[in-house]
Each structure stands twice: as C-alpha cells, then as structure tokens.
Amino acid sequence: KLQTHSCSDTLLFQLSEPIFTEAQAEILKAAMYDIRTYKAVDLALQSAWNIAQSFEYRDTTCVGCLIAAAVELERVSTILSQLVDSLALPLDKTDPDRLMENLLKMNGEVYRRSLFLSRLRNFTTDDAFKAGLSSEAFLSNWIKSEWFLNPLYNHVFRKLARIKNSERYSLFDKVSLWLPGLPSQWQELYARKLSEALLNSSREMQSAGRFDQAFILAANARDILKMIGHDDEADLMEHHLQEPMLGLYRVYLDVATDAVKNGNLRMGDEYLQKAIAFRAQNRAYMPGGLTDAEVYGRFADACLDKIIRLHEQGLYEEAFPYLLKAYDYARRITVYLRFPELDRMRSELAQKSYGQLLEKALDAYKIKDYASAAEFFEKWNQVRKTWSAWLQFTPEDDSIAKKYRISRLFVDLQELKVLVAQNVTDSLYAVADQKRQEVVNLHLTDQPEFCNLIREVGRLFFDAALKETGSYLWDFKFTEARSSFALADSISVRFHIADCEDVNQMLETMQQRMNRQNVIYATFLYDRYYYKTVSSFEAGSFALGKAYADTALQWCCCGCDAHNLESLVGKYAPAIRYDKYLQRLEYFYALQQADSMEFVRQRLFTWFQTDSTLSQHFTQPDTLWLIKLKPRSWVFDYYFGPLMEKGKPEYVLGLMEKLRSEGIPGEWLENWQMLTARAIAAKDIHIRNTEAAYQRLAQLAPDVVWYKVFREVYISKRLSVFQRMLN
User: Fold this and answer.
1) H helices within 475-562, ranges in order?
2) Nearest C-alpha neighbor of 605 from the set 619, 595, 592, 591
3) What residue spans of 237-369 are helical by DSSP H?
4) pLDDT per position as a tens digit, 650-698
5) Are residues 286 and 242 in contact, defined by beta-carbon separation less than 8 angstroms?
6) What is the DSSP letter of 391?
7) Which of 44, 55, 330, 406 could be 300's S-S partner, Cβ–Cβ 3.0 to 4.6 Å?
8) Model confidence pLDDT, tens digit, residues 272-316
9) Range 657-662, long-range pairs (CB < 8 A, 24+ positions)
C-alpha cells in the first residue's frame, strides 16, 4: 500500500508501516522454523525407512550390513526424536504426516533388529569391513540427498550427516550392548574401515568442488578415530579438514571477484563479507591464506580496475559506485599503495561525469524531452553536491538552474496527472494549483507541452468536482453542491479550460440540474410542512401549526400555491393567538410568577368571551380551570389566601370541594382544608351554640382528615350556601 506525499520539488512515495511488530515477527519466524523442521523430519524418516527396507533384519547373507543398518537406524531415530521433542507444535492435537506414529514404528524396528543381532555368533573380519563400508554409505547418503542442498531442510539433514566430537557414536555403544561376545579387535577394524571410507568420500567431494560436504565427511572420519582412542592419528588428519575449508573460502572470494568484474557490485560485496565472516568462524581450520587486510586490498584493486575500464568506455556515471566501494575497502587497510591513482580517478570521474550529464540534460532539453532532461539534471545535481570539492564550475552553470526547474516541473505535472487520475484529494489539488502557478511564473503558458498538461490536470479536477456536485444534488445537499459547483467553475478558469465548449456546456447543464433539483426539493418540503400544519391544527396544536406554516411559506416557489395555506392560517388566527398565550402561561408557571399567570388568564378569558370560535377548541379559562391546570401549593396560596383574608372561608371551601369532585387528590388540599374548617368553626361560635362549636373544633384533630369531619358537620347545613356562592 502506497501513501502519497507532496512537496515543493517533487512527488514522493513512502511505503506504509509494516503489518507485524518485531515481537510478532519473531514469533512467526519461530513457528515457520518449527514447521520446516517438522517437514524435514518427515522426509528424513522416509529415507531411514529406505535403509531398513534395503536390508531385511533376518537376512544373514551380509552380517556386517545388518549391524551397520541397525546402528544407523538407532542413531537416526534418536536424533529425530530429540528434534520432534524440541518443537513447539501441538502434535498431540494435529499431526498431518503422522510423525509421532512413524517414530514409534522406527523405534520398534530398531528393537527387533537388536534382538535378532543378539542371537548371532562367529563374526569374521570381512563382516567388520562390510559394516564399515555400509555405515559410510549411510552417512554419505544424508549429504548426497537432494534435501541436504535445500535451505529449508538443510539444518536437519546436516545434523544427521554430522557425527559431533562431543557425542559418543552409537556404533560402539550399541554393538557392545547387542553383541556382548564381540571381540574389541572386530570393532576397531569396523571403525578404521569406516574412517578410511569417509576420508575417501571426502576427497571425492572436494575434487567435485563440494567443499562443505567434504569437510563434514573428513570431520566424521577424524572423530571416529578419536572415539576408539586413536587421538594421535586423528590429529594427523587435521590437514584434511583445512583443505575443504580453504576451498570454500576461495569459492567465496572467487564469486565476489567475478561479480565485481562483471558489474554486480552488490553481489561482490555480499560474498566478500561472507568470505571474511567464514574465515573468522573457521580460523582453526585456516591457519594460512589471505589476511583480512590483504582481502580488502585485493578487492580495492578489483574495484579500481573496474573504474579504469568504465572510464575508458566513457561510462563515468556507472563508475561512481565502484569508486565509493574502492574507498571503503582502501580505508580498512593501513597502507594502500594505489591511493594516488584512486584520487586521480575520483577527480577525473567527477569532472567528466559532471560535464557528460549536463550535456545529456541540455541535449534532451533542446528537443523538449523534459522527462529525460529532468533525469539527467537530477543526476548532474547529485554529482554537483557530492563531488563539489573536485569540480571546476563555469559561470554559465548558474543559468542551468532554470532549465532544471522547468524539466522537473514537467515531470511533476506528468506524475500529478497519473495520481489525480487515480484519486482526487484536496492535497493533490493544492499541489496542482502550486504547479500551475509555477507555469505562470516561468512564463510557460505559451508552451504547448506545459499548457496541455495543465489543461489535462485541470480537466481531471473539473470532472471530479462536477461529479461530486451531482452526488450532493442526489442527496439534496444544496450547500455542498453549490460549493462543489463553484469549485468546478473556478477550476475551469484557473486551469484555462473555460474556453472549451464541452466544459461550458457541462457547467450550464449542471446549473439547470441544480435549479430543477431545488424546485423538486422545495416543492417536497412545502407539501411536507403543509401537511404538518394541517395535522397540527386538527390536533389542536395551533402555535406549532403556525410554525410549520411559516416554514412551508419559506419553501414556496414557482409551482406552489400559497393561497390555501394562507387562508387556513387566517381561519385559525384567533386560535393561534390564543395558543401562543397559553404557551406564555406555561412560561410564567415555570418561573412561578403568579401575577403574570393571572394577567394572561384574564386576557385569555376576555378573548374567550368575545370570540365564540375559541370554545370549539379550548376550555373556558376561569380561576377554577387554572387551578386544575396547575394544582400546586403556591397556586392554592395565590388564589385562596385573599379569600381567607376577606373572611370568606366558605368560598374557599366550596372551591376545594369542587376541585375534589373533579379528581384533584384531597391530600393536595389538606392544609387549606384544615384552615378553612377552623375558620368556619370560629364563625359558628358567633352564630351558634358556643359549646357545640367547641365540640366540633375538638373533632378537628391534626391527624383527622378534614373532609370526614366536614361531611358530618357542615355539608348537610351549608351545601345550599356553597351552591349559591359557586353559581
């Protein structure tokens, strides 16, 4: 995935961040290694079964072969079992190649062969020689296997082919265990024959240039002699190990030298580092040979010779990588005798490459091949920056900068065109506008190459802006659509495509589409809010209906008939005014402004009395209506308090009884009911028997609900008075 970044000089590409963290990569690497090991063990088991099938364990025609096969199978089985045990794979849950089962079968095969061998007697010298030759053949087969050369499986097959000095070769342990009566002389003959055969195979491998395999076989031959106690003879075989090591070292150096001579500097340096690392790791087997300084000097010479050949061919630019690498090698040496020659070649290469690249750039610029000119100018500028200390500048060099800038601008416009064709972004538009301004500043608008590129880039942005406009219109997003349309119009002017007939036609068509879409959308909204207005009026929400009507009138345009809506609003004008005042009543109630509430109620009551149509939609706004509408303690205090101050508790009591009969809970009025009952009882003291009044007051204990007493004492005698008061 590529991310695009813009800058003033060029358009750059940068790779996105890796998808794995370092820890995740290590886990994945370990898992892949285990999978490779699993597959290699499976292949090795198949090869081991070939050994078992080549010598049937009851066949006594070659006893030495049977012994060698049994020992090799036991050795391989042990190594492979250790490898499988080291795996972090869930083999108990999934084992596609049935590795565990095959290992058990191999162990069973080894056990059967050991039992059969324990019954054998009378071993001859010829059996020992045949056992040694067979064991050598088995060991060599691991090296000669195609899987040994496969880098995926080499680590397993190398382990099977190598008998490490620190390990006790199972041959001598197992043979003594399986054949307790076997004389030690027989075992020594076996080991010597095996060592001799391995050494001969090592020489064959070395003659064939397979130095790695030759070293393994020679090391096995030496270690077998050590295992039978012949350390002196083993030490004399060290030179057999040195020869393949030196051979492999020379191969690395030869590959590196040939790579440098043939122009593959990266490969040459890679194999040079491999050779040096190989020598450091195997220094014990390479007492002679070139030192690291001599190797670096040799390769510095190789690079310098390559520089001279390229210089003679006029390939100055191609010689620079070799020049840098030659200096790198030469600086690693205490004394490098060809430094003066190297410095001279540096000066000549810098000056001639500088002139050659500039000449190529100017030639390409003259024929208006700006892409090639920009490439040569880039290389010329890089030489100028890198090798300025060895260059002689001429006065006209400064005038080249403008041509360099023009060529670079042409390439940037080409790259920009490709990027815009893939995806249009605001950042790319900013870059395009910047490049357009550069064309103007450099007076290139009369150049067809630049003018056409600017128009092509502008046309891409223009088409994208119009497409975006259409998308916004489809979703009725007119603000965004107008903005995109204005951008398209601006692009047509700024990028000099306004004189194109098809561009003007597209702008005109889009403008007409915007107008049509506006009418469609306005008609839709007008109808929508018209029906909301009607629904609100029918539901009695006249103020809300008026708000919907005002919104609908805002969207009324050509094709809309507002007369019906205006008539409807006029019809409900009194109800709308009345409903708005009801909302003011709600506002004052929220603020607990009782005086303002009463003022609004009186205004509503006046309108209700003067306009008979209001009774069709609203209830008469008398005092009782307002108290029922907002039954709260501060509302009761506002209306009941003045009546009590005027000595009219009967009026208050009548109002409360009326409220209670219409569903107002008695506990909301309990406080005023107690006060009213006491006031009426107090008045009765003056107009009735005093003792009877005291008895009635005694019944009005705080924990007795007022209306229980009221019904017993007052309703029967005062009901007619209350009815007259309420009427």
Assistant:
1) 478-494, 501-538, 542-554
2) 619
3) 238-261, 265-281, 292-312, 316-330, 339-366
4) 777 777 777 777 777 766 776 776 777 667 666 665 555 555 555 545 5
5) yes
6) -
7) 330
8) 888 888 888 887 777 766 777 888 888 888 888 888 888 888 887
9) 657/722, 658/624, 658/726, 659/624, 659/627, 659/628, 659/631, 660/707, 662/628
